[in-house]
Structures are given as C-alpha cells and as structure tokens.
Amino acid sequence: MPVAVETGLWRLDQAASVVAVQQKTMWGLVTVKGTFTSVSGEGEVRAGGSAQGTITLDAASLDTKHAKRDQHLRQSGFFDADNHPALTFAVHGAELRPDDTVRVTGELTVRGVSRPQTLTARVVRADADAVTLETEFAVDRAQFGVGGKQMGMLRGLTAVNATLRFARAVA
Description:
Elements: E1 8-12, E2 18-25, E3 30-36, E4 39-45, E5 51-58, E6 62-63, H1 67-74, E7 86-96, E8 101-110, E9 113-126, E10 130-139, E11 155-168
Antiparallel strand pairs: 1-4, 1-11, 2-3, 2-11, 3-6, 4-5, 5-7, 7-8, 8-9, 9-10, 10-11
C-alpha cells in the first residue's frame, strides 16, 4: 500500500486508538493485561515527510479488570499517578520506509524519568483524512523506577501494544 500522508496537523482519534500492556507476574506464571482508557495525542507532518508529536496516557486510567490491583498500580510504588499523572511518548522523528513501516524515534517519560525509545510501527490503513499505525515494543520498568521490589514476582519486560489512529486536524 503506497502511503502519502499529507503535511499538517493530525490528532489522535481516542475512540479508535488502544494502548495495552502485558506483564508477567507471580514468578512468570501469570500474565496481567491492561488497557489505558484515556489516551490523547497530536502530531505534525512537515514538508519532506518528517514528523513530530506527542502521545499521552493518563496513568490512573490503566484498567486491568481488577479494581484492587488497579488502585495499587496508581500508588507510589508503581505509576505514582498523584505526582506523575501522565505517561508520555514525545516523537522527535518518524521515517517512512518502503515497506510501509515507520521508524519512530522519541522519548518515553514515566514517573518523571525520560529515556530514548525507538520503535517500528506498521501503517495498517491510510487515506487523505486518517492514518492508522500499529506497534509493539518492550519497556524495562526498572529504568523508570516502576514497581521493582516484589520478591521476584514481576519479571521481564513489559510488552506494549498500540493501535493509534490519527485524523487530520480541522482548522
């Protein structure tokens, strides 16, 4: 599918976008899955195809379908949502490749700690008014000070899966 995304401002379509996480717990025996129910973002495609923007997740909106666990994840040992209400991914650059993938470089910020992050997104749909990207990548929670000392109950990296639909911003 040839992709030609027009220059200009684009806004995340919250209703058509999903950011989910998966984490092994209970010493690797159980996988906990959750979805951020509040996601926002915007970006700009510039002449020449370069892009920049920001995706923002409301830290308190993580829903694992277990209220007590969700409350625990909002506390200071994990997301510390009272002091750090948002997780952000600031896109510094996006390079469209011939195979309809996009190499995205940016900075992920969790709990006030920022780290560079590079990922590959797939263009799954594109037209004059909208573009949908899918990506999967892993995050090392320890680099951000997120929930580290549960006697080995949490192991490995956190998998992030996102489907992000951007619509052309109306002036």
